[in-house]
Amino acid sequence: MTLLLGSIVELLGGDLQGDASLKIEGLAPLESATPQQLSFLSHPKYQNQLAASRAACVIVSPEMRGAALARGACIVTEQPYLYFARVTQLWKKSLPRTARPRIHRSAVIDPEAFVHQRACIGALCVIESGASVGADTVLKSRVTVGENCVIGERCLVHSGVVIGADGFGFAPHAGAWEKIEQLGAVRIGNDVEIGANTCIDRGALQDTVIEDGVKLDNLIQIGHNVHVGKHTAMAGCVGVAGSATIGAHCTLGGGAIVLGHLTLADGVNISAATVVTRSLRKPGHYTGMFPIDDNAAWEKNAASLKQLHSLRDRIRALEDKLMTLRDRP
């Protein structure tokens, strides 16, 4: 498959500096692109890769126009990364498609479930009683949608996702555990994407809620009664414990953990591997991780950490003593 460079710019905009009749046969990173492929420069720190790239054309910002022209053809746009994202969408739409049934014959859909006539249901999916799947939503293979759970429109749910399993709720009794029945459901808004093998638990009493535009990576655990605000994104292996509330336009890096019943304000960004142990009421970038080191040094530092409390008390006592000495005539 090929697309003319001029056709791409005609559809997506941008300022083309180069031959509009050039045929583009694929998309690739700067370092591996061939003379038949289109690439992009998302950050100036990669500009030495730009100079060495063999790409047919590179998408760049206005600030990088000169460096790109010194190399060859370019498309100049204010947001190169966004432009490249839209090129990938255009490319996928242009790929030849094999006609497939809207609902795979192996899918199991309860008679009491609702699946919109424009939704697509993949192989071995299960949609249980009272569940609803909206228009233009795609469930890839082996997705399970539990009873009474709702998925909105234009969502993409990847293989192995489980929506609406029981939340982890048990009451201790006489040395054993008594199950708390999970009576809520899961409500997912529009334009949500959920990565492979992610699990979103149903609420205990109220619903677990994922608002419009949320993007979840693979292997994420969302506990019962969690509320995730609009356009928040979470990278792989994030865990959000029950009844946490995460605001809109937040980001959580891979492996981050949010403890239960906490609140994150809109616009909070959490670094990878951070454990959030308190509510964060102000937008901003938060990090909480112990730096990696060789094991012997790490053990010494960890031992020192245990003494911080007593060291703090000793420093305060010394400060008080110094203040007393200063106050003497």
Secondary structure elements and pairings:
Blueprint (H helix, E strand, L loop, with lengths): L2 E2 H8 L2 E3 L5 E2 L1 E2 L9 E4 L6 H6 L4 E4 L4 H7 L1 E4 L3 H15 L13 E2 L4 E2 L4 E2 L4 E2 L4 E2 L4 E2 L4 E2 L4 E2 L4 E2 L4 E4 L4 E4 L2 E4 L6 E3 L4 E2 L4 E3 L6 E3 L4 E2 L4 E2 L4 E2 L4 E2 L4 E2 L4 E2 L4 E2 L4 E2 L4 E2 L3 E3 L4 E2 L7 E3 L8 H12 L1 H20 L2
Main sheet overview: 9 strands, parallel
Question: What's the total number of strands?
Answer: 35
Question: Which oligomeric form is depicted?
Answer: single chain
- What helical percentage do the residues reach? 10-25%
In CATH, the homologous superfamily of the largest domain goes by the name Hexapeptide repeat proteins
Structural class per helix/strand content? alpha/beta
Low-pLDDT segments: none
Look at the structure and give the CATH class of the largest domain. Answer: Mainly Beta
- Which percent range describes the beta-strand content? 25-35%
Largest beta sheet: strand ordering: 8-11-14-17-22-25-28-31-34
CATH topology descriptor of the largest domain = UDP N-Acetylglucosamine Acyltransferase, domain 1
Straight-line distance between termini:
89 Å
Count of folded domains: 3
The CATH architecture classification of the largest domain is 3 Solenoid
Shape summary: flat
Cα gyration radius (Å): 26 Å
How many helix segments?
A: 6
- Look at the structure and give the mean pLDDT: 96
